[in-house]
Design brief:
The structure is a homodimer of 313-residue chains. By secondary structure, chain A is of the alpha+beta class. The first copy, chain A, contains six helices and 19 strands. The longest helix of chain A is centred in the C-terminal third of the chain and has 13 residues.
């Protein structure tokens, strides 16, 4: 492959957007080591497997292919600098970030959006890289918005939205999904999402007030939907928000947790809300680990997960 | 693993954002088959390898693990419906989309952001999925913005930005990178990016005029940077734009193609532009296939790609 073709291939690979991870372990002397990678993918739910590719020219190639455990830290929007640190040749990278050791002694970076401690499951030789397949032993998701990488550059969809949204007539709503349940509030005209008008506050402040009003722990996420209410001259912006791993679905005074697939049965105020709900139900089944309600997987696995919460309407 | 833990793991995996692909091949009868997947990752540049995971419960598991060739179609923002079609159990999915056969007879979806035709390289058993590793035989990137998937929902950063940006005092600029070169224009105060004021047009119309003015083929991409010029009371928004695979770097009257790593030497009008350039150079080396200028890979591989264009300043 000539140099031109190789650059073109690199650009074409870059057409698939990704998050950014820092992969960590300890070397033979017990010192923490790590590198930035966007070649991560989840693989299997049961057993819990994930993978990441490592360049054979990496100085730490042997350490990573022979380690008993490694960790994947999925970076949050605020961690651009962390990504840069672990992508450059810097003497003591770990002195520049806050970190701790996990249960399996792998270095976990503070403030990551999520982390996974893995036992090495398999190393697959693959061209100029090796694929590390890890079995997830411990994990945690913090719900904070993730840093994106696309066409050779970071992108930060939540921060961008925050910078672009302004004005007294903007209503922000929170679409909060957790463990297959979505939080809805009963309004005069039917069920809707918890929301507030931005007024002169920032979007983050406004969403924080929404969460505080519900007394739940959640983080704002990406813009999911935007529409104009021409009668009321309002712009509606829906943010997809997330809760940390293991957080309960608290019985909220002003809202109800509803199974995502039961959302379609709720009375709704208007067609904008109806179309948003239908879209969310459909998309929620798309990913690698959708619940597969009648999708391309054979047979019905509707009860793949048994409901374990009583808040379901 | 109990159902709660499994849901939590699924949510944690969802903290890594991805693009969306449709994986296609032909069954034993020569009929096109395909499924939606976000478990894609590029693996190796030389040889050119990529991977995608397939659920063992898939109706087409045997067809995909035994096929000689398969294709990866990376979906564009406009292809949400295509993603839904290939994620659901629908009788004749291919009658609902426009497609053609590639050189290796794999089905390629029209209007994808990029596609790769692959020879099967290896199938790796991995828990409830199998990992298909493909050797890229043919590929093309169209430069159009990609559809994103994050926390169980699509997101469309470019469309969102287009919906949120308005006002006469918004200046949009195009950061166009192609094969390691970026397009800059000489202005009175130093080098900058090609740009125009939005006025009452849409962002897409404005960027199209920027491209037309340069007489180049390019697509608008994600928001890369936002800042306020308080003196001029202008909001500056920089879009990361892309050219299709194989497009030349035409000698543009109003601009110059500059090697990304040479951008730092250009005289610049102000600190906002300086910081943008420095950031872009740094980030461009982060990905799996960065050029590794002094990063964590051992040794200097500065000449990994030999320059083949004469337009370099």
């Amino acid at each position: 492959m000539d140099a031109d073709k190789r650059r073109q291939l690199r650009d074409a690979f870059g057409a698939f957007m990704t998050g950014v991870t820092v992969v960590t372990t300890n070397d033979a002397q017990g010192q923490p080591i790590g590198f930035t990678a966007n070649s991560f993918s989840s693989v299997s739910l049961d057993p819990a497997l994930l993978l990441v590719s490592i360049d054979k020219r990496s100085a730490n190639f042997d350490n990573f292919t022979q380690c008993p455990h490694f960790a994947i830290n999925i970076l949050a929007e605020q961690q651009k600098e962390t990504s840069n640190i672990f992508a450059q040749k810097i003497a003591d990278r770990f002195s520049l970030v806050k970190w701790r050791k996990g249960e399996f002694s792998t270095p976990l970076l503070d403030d990551s959006s999520a982390w996974f401690e893995c036992a090495m499951h398999q190393v697959v030789d693959a061209g100029d890289h090796a694929i590390l397949i890890g079995k997830v032993e411990q994990f945690e998701s913090c719900g904070t918005p993730g840093l994106g990488y696309y066409r050779g550059a970071y992108f930060t969809p939540y921060q961008n939205a925050e910078s672009l949204i302004a004005g007294p007539n903007v209503v922000v709503s929170a679409l909060i999904e957790s463990a297959g349940q979505a939080l809805v509030v009963k309004k005069e005209s039917g069920y809707g999402l918890p929301s507030q008008t931005v007024n002169n506050r920032s979007v983050s402040e406004t969403l924080k007030q929404v969460f505080d009003g519900l007394n739940i722990e959640a983080s704002p996420g990406f813009v999911y939907s935007i529409w104009e209410d021409r009668q009321k001259k309002q712009q509606h912006i829906v943010f997809l928000c997330a809760q940390p791993t293991g957080s309960t679905l608290p019985a909220v005074q002003q809202g109800e947790w509803v199974d995502v697939h039961a959302l379609a049965q709720l009375p709704v105020p208007d067609s904008a809300w109806k179309s948003l709900v239908d879209r969310f139900i459909r998309e929620n089944a798309v990913g690698n680990y959708g619940l597969y309600y009648g999708d391309e997987v054979e047979g019905s696995v509707r009860h793949f997960f048994t409901p374990s919460h009583q808040e379901v309407v």
